[in-house]
Amino acid sequence: MDNHFVSKFKVVLLVVATLLSGCSSNSTLPSATLHSSNTININSYKYLIGSGDVLNIFVWRNPEVSGSFVVRPDGMITTSLVEDIKVAGKTPTELARSIEEILATYLRDPIVTVTVENFVGPFSEQIRVIGEAAQPRAINYTQHMTLLDVMIQVGGLTEFADGNDAVLIRIENGQQKQYQVLIDKLLKDGEISANVDMLPGDIIIIPEAWF
């Protein structure tokens, strides 16, 4: 093999190794921010619009600007008169009033109604179950949902779960709090006192048992 080619090949390898070492020396990524829900108790819950929701926007006496719209991943929609309306994180009523203000520029005294189809909601409103659940996943919150309701939706526990050492993580006043939940007592022993109210944004972590 030509010595000149070998020398060039070694230089390329050296450059690549330098770049890779530079990448690996970067500091670790910051932890994800857990966003708190607007719901502070089960009776204050109001549905918030999220990406993927289908909105039916009806403008009274103006069918040409009414219609169904899918909320984009950036939390916005585009209507026939207005582009890029921020809708994620608002209640349907709040959005209706916002659209009325925007349309007042084009229409006289617009009256708007917003209804939601195909409920998804923002991540901050979903309950997430991870670890030793039979079907770990994110669940759309429903008012007055309890721990038992959540466990039914995820199919209960695996045979390796330590349900009584499960942890519920909740954001309260901007602070992350942890609570022990006794899932084994609830599901296996029928201890209804172990059933607790869930709130939007709750995270349940179910560990594996040590045998």
UniProtKB/TrEMBL annotation:
Keyword Translocase: no
Subcellular location(s) per record: Cell outer membrane
The keyword Transmembrane belongs to this UniProt entry's keyword annotation: yes
Domain Polysaccharide export protein N-terminal: 44-116
Keywords annotated in UniProt: Cell outer membrane, Ion transport, Lipoprotein, Membrane, Palmitate, Polysaccharide transport, Porin, Signal, Sugar transport, Transmembrane, Transmembrane beta strand, Transport
Signal peptide (UniProt feature, chain positions): 1-26
Superkingdom of the source species: Bacteria
Annotated Pfam families: Poly_export, SLBB_2
InterPro entries: PEP-CTERM_polysacc_export (IPR017477), Poly_export (IPR049712), Poly_export_N (IPR003715), SLBB_dom (IPR054765)
Topology term for the membrane: Multi-pass membrane protein
Main location: membrane
Boundaries of every SLBB domain copy: 127-206
Entry similarity comment: Belongs to the BexD/CtrA/VexA family.
The name this protein goes by in its record: Sugar ABC transporter substrate-binding protein
Lineage of the organism: Bacteria, Pseudomonadati, Pseudomonadota, Gammaproteobacteria, Alteromonadales
